[in-house]
Amino acid sequence: MPGTWWTRNRRYFLYVVREFTSLPLAIWLLWLLYAIWRGQTFSTAFAIFSIVALPFALYHSWTFLSLAGTILHAKVLDRPIPSRLIVLSQFAIWAVASIVIAALLVWFAK
Amino acid sequence: MADKRITLRAARFDPEKDKAPRMQEYDVPLYDESMVVLDALNYIKSHVDGSLSYRWSCRMGICGSCGMMVNGTPKLTCNAFLRDYWPRPVTVQPLNNFPVIRDLVIDMDDFMHKLKEIKPWIIRKEEIPLGAGEHYQTNEMIDDFRQFSECINCMLCYAACPVYGLNNEFLGPAATALARRYNLDSRDQGLKERQPIIGASEGIWECSFVGECSVVCPKGVDPAKAIQQTKLDTSMRFVLPYGNRD
Q1: CA–CA min distance A15, chain B (Å)
Q2: ipTM associated with this complex
Q3: Cβ contacts of A6 on chain B, cutoff 8 Å
Q4: Segment (H or E) for B232
Q5: What's the CATH code of the domain at B18?
Q6: Secondary structure of chain B: what % helix, strand, coil (to 5)?
Q7: CATH number of residue B150's parent domain
Q8: Which of A27, A45, B57, B213 is spaced 20 to 30 Å from B36 by Cα?
Q9: pTM (2 decimals)?
Q10: A-chain residues within 8 Å CB-CB of B228?
Q11: Of the candidates B72, B215, B225, which has its C-beta nearest A11's C-beta?
């Protein structure tokens, strides 16, 4: 199989992008843990990299949550929950969790 | 329609003469709006070049024999209408990811071996005698596995799967979908017999959820869903205290 298989169609390409976006996230997390471990304050470089990593994080999260509808299967009163509802609930939980975490960060910063 | 013609490029490979597949062009008349790629291949075989080799049988999307790469996409050639490609040429090649025996004919032994391994039939610990009557199933029970039972073993999903292309030890989409079809069947008790195959590292865990298998399936089966849900079920069986139930 040629190494360029992922350029054969758009879906292969988006799959590779999806997998690749985990790399900046992993680097960002390792950097964060390293900074915490060393007791460092966050540098300008880390702030810039955080901004760069944000779109990757958003894309990765979006694809992850969108696929949840395919993976999760649950029944209520013997009827399967529609995939769309599962995906929407995942996004709703994501939004609520983001708001709560943001509020906590703002509160601690004060 | 009578004057229309289309160019069909077919991959040719004779293992006794050719080192690698080569492309050969044919000029085919489009005599009907309903003509499919398989009709064009049959026209070539009957009127132009009788040596062209390919598999086909039912011509109605049931047997799963006529799967080929049509302009780079795995398709049943009996379900690929030439009107959708005209006036551009159509390129027909053997299914990706399989060894080629001749022209458009692939060697399907690997898939047949995997299919047999997952035991795609109802397994009972103790057979219930026919005199005991039917196995009752509700519509909801049948809905659990119905879509996976639509698989016709056409292998388009294997041709679309880059994971299988990179590592043909991977159990693959159709075999896993069929394993799930029987594991979800309320009449079946064979989960433990199939689990060593589907739960192996080259089974479900090899899949990285590209999802192309489900896109190309001509019968609307969602093998990607079967694999991901089997991963979840296998994990839950491992984690939960009552997980090793039958």
Answers
A1: 6
A2: 0.87
A3: 162
A4: helix B223-239
A5: 3.10.20.30
A6: 40, 15, 45
A7: 1.10.1060.10
A8: B213
A9: 0.91
A10: 67, 70-71
A11: B215
On whether the CB atoms of residues B223 and B204 are closer than 8 A, the answer is no
Interchain CB distance below 8 Å, B143 and A80:
yes
The shares of helix, strand and coil residues in chain A, as percent rounded to the nearest 5, are 80, 5, 20
Q: For residue B69, what is the enclosing H or E element? A: strand B67-70
Chain B residues in contact with A15 by the CB 8 A cut-off are 210-212
Task: Kindly report, residue by residue over A6-65, the tens digit of the pLDDT.
Answer: 999 999 999 999 999 999 999 999 999 999 998 877 789 999 999 999 999 999 999 999
Single out the residue of B64, B39, B42, B67 nearest to residue B53, CA to CA: B42
A71:B165 CB<8 A: no
The CATH number of A5-109, from 2.40.50.140, 1.20.1300.10, 1.10.287.180, 3.90.1300.10, is 1.20.1300.10
